[in-house]
Design brief:
Layout (H helix, E strand, L loop, with lengths): L1 H34 L8 H33 L3 H26 L8
Length: 113
């Protein structure tokens, strides 16, 4: 059983690392696109598009981070204190995801266009 927990621990670190990479790479790509179009710099739409791209990469990265935390808590460290920490982390990350989505979309995620 210890080998399984070790494998799951390594997998969760991989999932969380992928989430961090998504944020970093997504932000770098958005920044590259923003900086490579200097003719549009005075326009507000270019800046808003940049913010939306960075926000989307953060939201996607947060999803992977939450998945890694859930897997680690359920499989590896299933104590009451780790569940409480997981609940707090999920609450904070979900709040961040909702506020970012609301800022990007201009509406709540479950509302229709």
């Amino acid at each position: 059983m210890e080998n399984f927990k070790d494998i799951v621990t390594i997998a969760t670190y991989g999932i969380e690392s992928f989430g961090v990479l998504v944020v970093i790479i997504g932000s770098l790509i958005a920044t590259f696109h923003f900086l490579s179009s200097p003719k549009d710099w005075p326009k507000e739409e270019t800046y808003q598009q940049y913010r939306c791209s960075v926000g989307r990469s953060i939201i996607l990265g947060l999803e992977f981070l939450i998945a890694g935390d859930v897997i680690r808590t359920v499989i590896v460290t299933h104590s009451l204190s780790s569940v409480a920490v997981l609940a707090l982390l999920v609450l904070i990350r979900t709040f961040l995801s909702l506020t970012l989505a609301m800022e990007i979309e201009g509406r709540m995620p479950w509302q229709k266009f």
